Amino acid sequence: MPNNPLVLVPIFIPLSAAALCVLTAHYLRVQHIIGMTASTVAWLASLAILVLNWSDGLQVYRIGGYAPPYGIVLAPDMLSALFEVMATTVVACGTLYILGCRDKCISYPAFMPIFLCMSAGLNGAFYTGDIFTLFVFQELMIMSSVVLVAISDNRLGVEAAIKYLLISAMGSLFLLLGIGAIYATFGTLTLADIARLLEGGQRPLLAQAAAVVLMCAFLLKSAVFPFHFWQPDFHTAAPTPVHAVLSSVVVKVGVYGLIRLTMLLFINEAPLVRNLLLVLGVIGIFFGGLAALRTYDAKRMLAYSTFGQIGFILVGIGWGTPLALVGAIVYAFNHSFIKSSLLMITGAIASRMPNKSAKLADIGGAGKNLGLISVLYLVGGLALTGIPPLNGFISKLTIVQGGVQAQSWVVLGLSIGAGLITLLYMTRTWQHIFQRSPDETLHLKPVGDSVVAPALLIGLCVLLGLYAVPLIEAATLAVTRLGDPNIYIRGVLGG
Length: 495
Fold this sequence. Notes:
Layout: H1 9-23, H2 28-56, E1 61-62, E2 73-74, H3 78-100, H4 111-127, H5 131-150, H6 157-186, H7 191-198, H8 205-221, H9 231-237, H10 240-250, H11 252-265, H12 270-294, H13 298-319, H14 322-350, H15 360-363, H16 371-385, H17 391-406, H18 409-434, H19 452-466, H20 469-482, H21 485-493
Antiparallel strand pairs: 1-2
Helix pairs in contact: 1-2, 1-4, 2-3, 2-4, 3-4, 3-10, 3-14, 3-19, 4-5, 5-6, 6-8, 6-9, 7-21, 8-11, 9-13, 10-14, 11-13, 12-13, 12-18, 13-14, 13-17, 13-18, 14-16, 14-17, 14-19, 14-20, 16-18, 16-19, 17-18, 17-19
């Protein structure tokens, strides 16, 4: 459908709401209502785009009415629509969590506008059909998250924000170099047009260099080894609702970019890229799991866990078979709900402490008498581990089936073996927080309403485990359409 204005909603509604929040800076409750309304509208619009993609194919909006490749185009296909639903769901739950959050930084007038800007940047990165606009949306997302971490209650927030700002500048440089090389070679920035020109088989020198630097940029955005060193400090220091978005969906922008790189743009170079992703994925699975097992902080443990979970996704992309790619998409989708819910519960427990610490030495037994929250955390941990009948099991099962289809027995065996580490650190943390007797000298604060959002996400984890057919079918349809790049090219450029 040409020029579907619904495509604009998930991007411009949060941006407009951010402007309204600036105008209502002295009315915190009004800001919260605006933020919750905007996040809900963006979520509903993303669901509508997904349904339209399912029935009618790729949706397009040509900004200013200029036809690509001469103008900027928003072109969400089935892959974009799935990732967008994932992102808007987590952001909406994160906004709901803000309403009951006890962090001091939540009450700052700038918090909600910047949070909404981060949401708009994230949504735009998934919807854009222009590689330079992808850079712009990523920078909006990055700068917003840097500010949100810098103003957090954690005394290390400023240090973590500065670290990430410097490392992110490297990723932005990689991305800009890749964009410059592509534009110098082909004279276009529209993804569909670049794919059309690369489809002919010609590989100018700058095009090959662009593939390398773009891959490095996306690996850094996903905190993949060896570009991982910024992530634990930055994510741990972030306010809980921000951490829940960063560690579950923001890191998926890099995953999304790698899928586009191997399935749309540089198809001839894809086998080499996939072999590298297999190696990095296995390293990430082991490194993330072992680091999470040995860490001293519950939020930091979940940040390290993201390394391992991203590793599973990279392995699926690396195998490159249709079933493995379906597994990678399903894994990315389900992991977002699991990880964000666990982070929100951890933040709610940490908020009970006088110093709001999430260190395991401090929060031992802090959830002893919290029956419902204990059950929610246990279910989330089992989902992350891949225990049936939860959605994490569906994710692991599709990845394993992809490995069998690819007949990559060594990598498959290593991935399954390393997955057991997840069970160790999740059960250990659950027992430490919810089964130990608390320190009687501590005066624990009530949890409040901050468990509503993670309860909704855990409910989705159970639902997508018991009834995974729609998600599997949507991911299969996305991979089928990705298998023929001409579907995307014709959808954007016409003809």
